[in-house]
């Protein structure tokens, strides 16, 4: 019997895992090109030829649209900003409800609150972790205006089922594709499955520009509204001749020329990076699922999963040790990752606490001290953010799921073998935990 590292034994590995750094000479040359031009941004917040940005932004948008086969791609300074633009373009406002996932980054839901509408949380699928179509339909009311779906962890949502529900009820589908660029559902790119899609270019995503995002749509009207909200709509609509003023309160969500130039380089690397990530994920899924009680991620039929992170299921009744204790023991056997030294070992239990359990929802306080939008007089619904609202999400988070980032393209087979060895060591000595 080996001594586990949590008991003072020698860990499986102490050398840090390699950094995931996808910035190379191409990006450096692109940045230098922009610096030499002297044009670091070329947006004007008025109706002008520069309303749509500079040459790098426009080129990046065109290249992104061509890559994903969409009519419009609009660059923004973050995926969060893109979600705000998408919700605003959809006409969501006070008194409305939007169906959202409880198991995602907070902005997927707060994008609704930005426009003084109320998020309504539907439960998630037990095996794919995206919004459950049956739960979505059960939460629709006469106040529902849109559905924000999330391609969580790199898995496309059930587009056939949810899009059919949306069409039946006259709702728009906004696809949060922050974690799933290059994923596919029945041959179609994730991000293009709904009415509006939003991608992330944040530093820890598949490709990145430091911060940034892209909104895509085939709808001309929605696209122009996104562009207006991105860039000071209220100062533009008069001279532009825009007549529909709903949500034409604009922001500064503009991407600069340096980010766009980097994005153009990163887009060219996307396919290769995703291919390596999938190969790594397949290898780890095969090896880790050899341990009874650990189940590899399910992949939706006719889909390509691109693994922002890899989430596996843990069955305490089989393994005999609580999930949190087991995973902490595995983490003790492994090192940190270069460039992310302050984050500890890139493995965790669960993902995020179901959003409705956070203070804003529990206390019904967002704008001011009157409880808006939850208690706004114009809102005629009744909020429900009680524990137990989404039992599948709660169970998965509290007891079953664990995730890791050891599928990154920088990881070699030897690196992954160390991860597997750490699991095996803890598994074989779990009675000592």
What would you call the structural class? alpha/beta
Strand order, sheet with most strands:
1-9-8-5-4-2-3
Q: How many strands appear in the DSSP assignment?
A: 14
The CATH topology of the domain at 25-265 is given as: Aspartate Aminotransferase, domain 2
Features:
single chain; 433 residues; alpha/beta; Aspartate Aminotransferase, domain 2; 7-stranded mixed beta sheet; 14 helices; 14 strands; 36% helix; globular
Helix-strand layout with pairing:
Blueprint: H1 25-37, H2 55-68, E1 72-76, H3 79-89, E2 97-100, H4 107-113, E3 118-121, H5 133-138, E4 144-150, H6 159-169, E5 172-176, E6 184-185, E7 188-189, E8 196-200, E9 213-217, H7 220-230, H8 237-240, H9 257-288, E10 294-295, E11 303-304, E12 310-314, H10 316-319, H11 323-332, E13 347-349, H12 359-363, H13 391-400, E14 401-404, H14 413-428
Parallel strand pairs: 2-3, 2-4, 4-5, 5-8
Antiparallel strand pairs: 1-9, 6-7, 6-11, 8-9, 10-12, 12-14, 13-14
Helix pairs in contact: 1-9, 2-9, 3-4, 3-7, 9-14, 11-14
Describe this protein's structure:
With 433 residues, the chain is α/β, with parallel strands linked by helices. The chain has a domain at 25-265: Type I PLP-dependent aspartate aminotransferase-like (Major domain) (Aspartate Aminotransferase, domain 2), CATH 3.40.640. It has 14 helices and 14 strands. The chain has helices at 25-37, 55-68, 79-89, 107-113, 133-138, 159-169, 220-230, 237-240, 257-288, 316-319, 323-332, 359-363, 391-400, 413-428; strands spanning 72-76, 97-100, 118-121, 144-150, 172-176, 184-185, 188-189, 196-200, 213-217, 294-295, 303-304, 310-314, 347-349, 401-404. The strands form 3 sheets. Strands 1-9-8-5-4-2-3 form a 7-stranded mixed β-sheet, sandwiched between helices. A hairpin with a 2-residue loop joins strand 6 and strand 7. The two termini are 12 Å apart.
């Amino acid at each position: 019997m080996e001594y586990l590292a949590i008991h003072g034994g020698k860990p499986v590995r102490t050398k840090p895992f390699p950094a995931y750094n996808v910035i190379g000479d191409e990006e450096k040359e692109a940045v230098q090109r922009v610096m030499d031009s002297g044009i670091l941004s070329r947006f004007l917040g008025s109706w002008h030829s520069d309303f749509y940005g500079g040459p790098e932004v426009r080129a990046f948008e065109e290249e992104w649209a061509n890559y994903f086969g969409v009519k419009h791609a609009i660059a923004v300074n973050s995926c969060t900003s893109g979600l705000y633009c998408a919700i605003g373009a959809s006409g969501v406002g006070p008194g409305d409800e939007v169906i959202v996932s409880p198991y995602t980054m907070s902005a997927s839901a707060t994008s609704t609150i930005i426009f003084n509408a109320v998020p309504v949380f539907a439960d998630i699928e037990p095996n794919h972790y995206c919004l459950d179509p049956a739960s979505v339909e059960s939460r629709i009311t006469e106040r529902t205006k849109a559905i924000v779906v999330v391609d969580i962890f790199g898995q496309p949502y059930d587009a056939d089922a949810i899009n059919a529900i949306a069409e039946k009820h006259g709702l728009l589908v906004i696809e949060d594709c922050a974690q799933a660029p290059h994923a596919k559902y029945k041959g179609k790119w994730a991000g293009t499955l709904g009415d509006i899609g939003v991608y992330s270019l944040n530093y820890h995503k598949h490709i990145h520009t430091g911060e940034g995002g892209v909104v895509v749509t085939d709808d001309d009207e929605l696209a122009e509204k996104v562009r207006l909200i991105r860039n000071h709509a209220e100062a533009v609509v008069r001279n532009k001749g825009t007549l529909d003023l709903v949500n034409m309160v604009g922001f500064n969500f503009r991407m600069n020329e340096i980010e766009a130039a980097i994005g153009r380089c990163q887009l060219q690397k996307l396919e290769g990076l995703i291919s390596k990530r999938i190969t790594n994920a397949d290898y780890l899924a095969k090896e880790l699922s050899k341990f009874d009680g650990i189940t590899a991620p399910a992949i939706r039929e006719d889909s390509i999963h691109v693994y922002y992170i890899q989430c596996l299921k843990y069955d305490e009744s089989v393994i005999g040790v609580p999930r949190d204790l087991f995973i902490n023991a595995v983490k003790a056997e492994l090192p940190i990752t270069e460039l992310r030294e302050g984050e500890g070992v890139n493995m965790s239990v669960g993902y995020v606490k179901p959003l409705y359990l956070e203070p804003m929802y529990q206390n019904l306080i967002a704008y001011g001290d009157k409880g808006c939008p939850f208690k706004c007089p114009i809102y005629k619904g009744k909020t429900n953010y009680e524990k137990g609202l989404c039992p599948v999400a709660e169970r998965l988070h509290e007891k079953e799921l664990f995730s890791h980032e050891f599928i990154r393209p920088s990881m070699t087979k030897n690196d992954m073998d160390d991860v597997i060895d750490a699991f095996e060591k803890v598994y074989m000595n779990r009675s000592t935990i």
